[in-house]
Write a structure and sequence with these properties.
This protein is mainly beta. It contains no helices and ten strands. Strands 1-2-3-10-5-8 form a six-stranded antiparallel sheet, with no helix packed on it. A four-stranded antiparallel sheet has the order 4-9-6-7, with no helix packed on it.
């Protein structure tokens, strides 16, 4: 599919507490995620760059030693290999995330 409307896009369970829809091309992956309230990823890293934008809601993210609370229309960029994680608050958050396809 070449076009998405984020207001009507049907998301499916990715893992408990996270709904998503992914479009996987030859080189890129684009994912919409909706993460439930009070969820946390304590940290991980991977060997590809990743970036995204908060579509709706609020999330605390850390990238390396930097920590920030992001809200709608704020974006993030995570360089390859850098430890990062997130946590949600009392409401769900919706993200649009893009990364290079891991080969």
């Amino acid at each position: 599919m070449a076009f998405w409307n984020l207001d009507t896009l049907r998301l499916e369970e990715f893992r408990p507490g996270i709904l998503s829809k992914a479009e996987i091309g030859d080189n890129l992956i684009m994912v919409v995620m909706e993460i439930e309230a009070e969820k946390e990823d304590r940290g991980h890293s991977h060997n590809y760059d990743q970036c995204g934008i908060v579509v709706d809601g609020k999330i605390e993210m850390y990238i390396g030693k930097e920590r920030r609370i992001l809200t709608s229309n704020e974006s993030y960029f995570i360089p390859s290999g850098l430890q990062h994680g997130w946590k949600t608050f009392d409401e769900s958050v919706k993200l649009l995330d893009v990364s290079i396809k891991d080969s």
